[in-house]
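User: Hi! I have a protein structure encoded as tokens and I'd like to know what sequence might fold into it. I'm fairly new to this, so please keep things simple.
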């Protein structure tokens, strides 16, 4: 996948696991539509995370397929690497980790 930094918001599919509160994650389950920040290299940028499975809330320690909309794609799309790990933060607190999934073939 090649990042096209000329268009703007861009969505990628990922599989993420939210951390439990005991590991520094959220005290309550995250809802589909959550707006954490996403690490792209050394930059943290806004994103929207929605369930790709029609699930309303994400329980900790379970993997979910999600769509990650990178809000400022025009500015930071060039930093996107599909091989990089997914790291989602609430402020400076890591709340979820995962991996990007390859694009679905039609």
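Assistant: Happy to help. Inverse folding works backwards from shape to sequence: for each of the 106 positions I chose a residue that suits the local structure. Here it is:
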């Amino acid at each position: 996948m090649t990042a096209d930094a000329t268009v703007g918001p861009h969505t990628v599919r990922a599989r993420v696991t939210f951390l439990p509160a005991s590991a520094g994650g959220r005290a309550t389950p995250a809802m589909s539509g959550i707006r954490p920040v996403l690490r792209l290299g050394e930059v943290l940028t806004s994103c929207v995370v929605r369930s790709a499975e029609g699930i309303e809330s994400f329980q900790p320690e379970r993997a979910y397929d999600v769509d990650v909309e990178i809000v400022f794609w025009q500015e930071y799309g060039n930093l996107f690497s599909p091989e990089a790990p997914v790291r989602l933060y609430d402020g400076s607190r890591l709340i979820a980790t995962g991996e990007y999934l390859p694009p679905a073939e039609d």
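A useful reference point when you look it over: Helices lie at 73-76. Feel free to ask if any position seems puzzling.
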